[in-house]
Every structure is written in structure tokens, then in C-alpha cells.
Amino acid sequence: MQQEQIPLEDFFKNPEKTGFKLSPGGKRISWLANYEQRLNIYIRDSENNIEKRLTARTDRDIRSYFWLTDDQLAFFQDTGGDENEHIFVVDVHTGDTKDITPFEGVKVDLIDELEDVDDAIIIGMNKRNPEIFDVYRLNTITEAITLIEENPGNITSWITDHTGALRLATTTDGVNTSLLERTAPGQFRTIITTGFRETLAPLFFDFEQKHVYALSNIGRDKIAIVLIDITDAHEIQCLFEHPDVDAGQLGFSKKRKVITSATYTTWKTEFVFFDSESEQRYAKVKSLINEDAEIYITDRDKAEEVFIVRTLSDRTLGNYYLYHATNNTITHLANVSPWLQANKLCSMEPISYESRDGLTIHGYLTLPDSGHAPYPVVIHPHGGPWARDVWQFNPEVQFLANRGYGVLQMNFRGSTGYGRAFLEASFKEWGKKMQDDITDGVQYLIEKGIADKDRIAIYGASYGGYATLAGLTFTPDLYTCGVDYVGVSSLFSFMETIPPYWAPYLEMMYEMVGHPEKDRELLAEASPLLHIDNIKAPLFVAQGARDPRVKKSESDQIVQALTEKGVDVLYMVRENEGHGFMNMENKFAFYAEMESFLSRHMQSKKK
Q1: How many whole angstroms separate alpha carbon 209 and alpha carbon 227?
Q2: DSSP strand pairing (120-125 vs 134-139)
Q3: What DSSP element (H or E) covers 215?
Q4: 433-447 vs 463-474: helix axis angle to the nearest 10?
Q5: Residue 4 CB neighbour total at 10 angstroms
Q6: Contact yes or no for 433/423 (Cβ under 8 A)
Q7: Domain ranges of the chain
Q8: From residue 245, how far is each of 64, 220, 223, 261, 438 by CA, in Å?
Q9: Does domain 348-602 correspond to CATH entry 3.30.360.10?
Q10: CB within 8 A of 290, min separation 6: which ones?
Q11: Burial profile 495-529: b = 16 or more Cβ within 10 angstroms, e = fewer
Q12: pLDDT by residue (tens digit) across 477-527?
């Protein structure tokens, strides 16, 4: 039976409505929706039910925003993908919008929304020094910016307590991390110092403001959620740990001052509850929603009586609901992408295989609803590389499956969530054992009769783009073609052009990837640019001109070298994009070109 072909735009256009949030007092509800092909903020007053568009951004989507008060919102936006986000404030009544951090070349981070303060937030800015972030109190009404703490030079994150007081900081010298207590302005006391291989990541203070909940793998392989004493960082209590995977997020109720739940991800994300009220509420919400999907409570009002609920699955971007706890009722707010029907999309199934040196590699396999094995397959390694693929709707995967391709996503060594030993197994293994894990996944599919050995492509973004180039370089007979999206072509030039605010982590990068001088031979062996004579499969390269992470020069140099060698290379550059295309028209162009490219090279057997 022939699979119904869904229009490309339906996979990659902006959601109909998404990002629902509640104002602090619950008077208004907000969401993101399209205006002039860009995501903008819309609001609805709960009293009169009147909806209106609040912003009119036409250059870039608004992707991140939050409520300040019932009458004021704030959102982040950069310029053309340069990742130097500024904070813009919007008046709910007038729609007046203003950049209140209008500093060229400066990146702003949110440290604390100060939920109980109506006119201020705490931010980090690299205004004084592009490599480090100082802490400021920003008045969102007067726009006054007051320095709270100047970064002494090595602090990489700041932690406030529940009152908004700046209490803790973390530092790095590149390989060692210290947790500091701020004892007075400009004065810090070291609580504990750990190597970068160990994790001790503070989450938030307990409700007595004495101890801190943290993610920790000190003395264990998998990250656990613990409560630590900040006098000496000793572990008071282990709240949760899992034998096979790292612990994830920890939730709490600010109103009731209790810990509510934790998450962990095997092949799906699961919840562990510490609080009966939260567990019962989750069960009630689940019973009211008739969906085979993961369910998340994504927002709530201050009174914790009204909640925003989001559903997600492998075959849909899901729905948003409004749940009223007082009367246990739920109201449907929106289908995020109503033009996509789950029953016409493909199931993402868990898969695991053994690497050549004995590691278990977990991943996901999505097969098309039409055709039969052996399928043409696209190997799709994730970016990061210290990240992981999860069971969720992935528009790229569904698009490729709809076009008749099987798609393999694998969490190769170094992927997060599988413990310290699995992470460390990736150190200085770019293009080597990390790439072997990808290759072993391809061979597994071939041996099982799932993949057609003569029709296998590789496609990835960022580190996945590097893995694409490495695959074509170091296993040139394995792939029919490749698509490199903002990928690294030379480990030497990549190290030389990292963003300035990554500088504190440079020594760690040297340990995890390799040092340009001490490990020169290693990096040379793993840099596709230095082995282009091996590459013979056709290649499609896509790049954002304003990318601050993987500079355009990374793509320019591999394209130029291969063109001079006579390899078939297609190159797409977008001047108004950064590390990945965000604007719809650019996404449409990229995926249309990728579809055409794959069709040309995958429809017939390799010669």
C-alpha cells in the first residue's frame, strides 16, 4: 500500500499555537502563534475572553518568553541567529515593546524571574567582558540596571535562593569545578571542588534556605538527585537514583513548600512522585485526557489552582489543556499542529545493539508505513555531542519516514543520561569510537535485513554534521550520500573559533575532544578536512552565515576542498540564520533541497 505523501511544509511550518503560559495571578493566558510567518505572543483575558495579538516581530520567531506581572511580559530575541539574546518587555494593555538590554554584541541570561517581585528580574550579562557574565538586577519598568556582583573571572553560573538572594556560584578553570558560597558582596567561600568528570549541579535551595538539592554522581556512576549541606557539600539524603540511567528534573511546589516529583528517561520519560497531592493531580489529569502520550504540567498560576498541561508523543506535537484543580475540569486549548494526523505518521520504536567493544548502544528506529525491508535508510546522529535523542515527535524523522526512508537515531557513547562511564568512553574519540558506534548501528540494520546496504545516507546537524563528514571520510563505502547541516569539518579550526563565552570551558574541551598541540596527531586523524581524498559520496552542506558556534568557514573550507577535488557538493547558505535555520522559509528551502538530494542519490543502487 502506497503511503500518503504529506506536504513538506506541514512538518516544518510553525505550530498553530504553542508555548501556553498563565499570568501570575491567573488573569490572563498567553501563547505563541503566527503573525507574518513568525511566532508572536498572543493573550486572552480570562474575565472577558477577549483575544489579541501582543507583539509584531517579523524578523525572527519569539521562542522564549515569560510573564513578569499580570500586566507585563518579557521575551528573548537575538539578531539573525547570532545568539546574543536581549530582553524585550511588552505592556499587555498597549502592546508597547522595548529592548531593555540594548547593548550591541552582548548576550543576556535569565538568572531569576523573581516571582514575588513585580518590577525586577536578575540577569547575567557579558557586557563588561564577552567571556564572562556579571549579575545585575534589572528594573523592568524604569529599565534601571544595578550591578549585584562582578564576576571575578571564572564563575560560570549563579544560584539564588527562594527570596532571590544571590547565594551560590559555580566556577571552572576548564577542568575543575568549584561550588562557592557567596558570604558577602565580592566575597566567596569554596564549598567543594570536583573534576569535570564528576557532576555536582545545584538545582535549588530547600525551603528552610539552608541546604541545596542537586544532581550528583559523586561516588556513583549514574546521576542521582540529592540534598547537600552547603557547609561542606556532604550528602544529607539521596532522594532518587535509577540503576540504569541518570536522574532528570526535580519539581517543587513553592506555595506548599514541598518536593513534588522527579523524572528519568529510559526510552521514554517517567515520573517518580514524592508528594501525594501531586501524584493524585497527575492521575486525575491523565484520566481526563484521552491520548496515548506523555503528559507534562508546564505552568501554573501562583495559587496553584490552574495548570497548563502539554501532551507529547512520537507521532504528534500534541495538545495543550487548561486544568482547574478545584473542580477537576479540563479544557482543550489547542492542537499544536492540527494538520498532522497521528495515524498517518510512523511509530518511533526503541532499539539497542552492541558496539564492537561491548557497549550497549540505545536508540530509536522509525520505519515507513509503505514499502518493505530492506529499506533505504537515513542514519541520523544527534548534535551535542553531549546530548541525547529521546522518544518524541521529531519533524525530520517523520518527514523522512513519510518519504519512504527508515531512520535510525542512536545514542552513541558520550550521549547524556547513561552515566559517567558511558560519557567518559567518548573522550578524545571524535571520529573514532564515537563514529564506530554509528557504523555499528548501520551494520546491525544491514545484518537484520532492515537496511538496504546500497541505499544508506547519513544526515546530522552540528556534531551530527561532523559525524556525517566523518562517516563519508572514514567509512567511504558505507554511505550512498550525506547531508551536513552546520557541521564541524576541522577540529583545529573549530577550536580556534568557539564563542568567547565558551572560553572558560576550553581546557575541558581539550580533555574531551583533544588539545590542538598536545593531541595534534589525534585531531588531524579525526578532521575530515584533512582526509578529503577519502570522500567520494555526494554531499549536501547547509550553513547559517551568522552561526557563532560552528562558523561558516567550517563549511566553506570543506565545500571548496571537495569542489576542487571534483566531488559532487551542493551548498546552501542563509545570511539571516545561525546555528540551524529558524525562519520558516529557510527551513522549507533546506528540507526541499534535502528531499531532492536524497531522492536523486538513493533511488537507485550505488554503482
Answers
A1: 12
A2: antiparallel
A3: strand 211-216
A4: 70
A5: 10
A6: no
A7: 348-602
A8: 29, 12, 8, 17, 21
A9: no
A10: none
A11: bebbbebeebbbbbbbbbbbbbeebeebbbbbbbb
A12: 999 999 999 999 999 998 887 777 777 778 888 999 999 999 999 999 999
Peptide bond into 548 cis (omega under 30): no
Q: Give the catalytic positions in this structure.
A: 462, 547, 579
Q: Of 60, 50, 141, 53, whose CA–CA distance to 95 is shortest? A: 53
**Alpha carbon distance 11, 19 (integer Å):** 18
pLDDT tens digits, one per residue of 279-330:
999 999 999 998 889 999 999 999 999 999 999 999 999 999 999 999 999 9
Secondary structure string (H, E, C) spanning 411-438: ECCCCCCCCHHHHHCCCCCCCCHHHHHH
SS3 14: coil
Strands (E) across 341-388 are located at: 348-354, 360-366, 375-379
pTM of the model: 0.92
Task: Please give the order of strands across the beta sheet that includes 86-91.
Answer: 64-69, 72-77, 86-91, 97-99
User: Measured between alpha carbons, how far is 508 from 281 in angstroms, rounded to an integer?
Assistant: 43
Cell of residue 26, nine digits: 491567573
Contacts of 389 (CB under 8 A, 6+ apart): 363, 364, 382, 409, 410, 411, 415
Burial 310-347 (b: 16+ CB within 10 A, else e): bbbbbbbbbbbbbbebeeeebeebbbbbeebebeebbe
Pull the grid cell for residue 463.
Answer: 556534531
Does residue 384 come out as left (phi exceeding 0), alpha (psi in the -120 to 50 range) or beta?
Answer: left
C-beta separation of 506 from 512 below 8 A: no
| Degrees, nearest 5: CA angle 388-389-390 | 115
Name residue, grid cell 558505507: 478
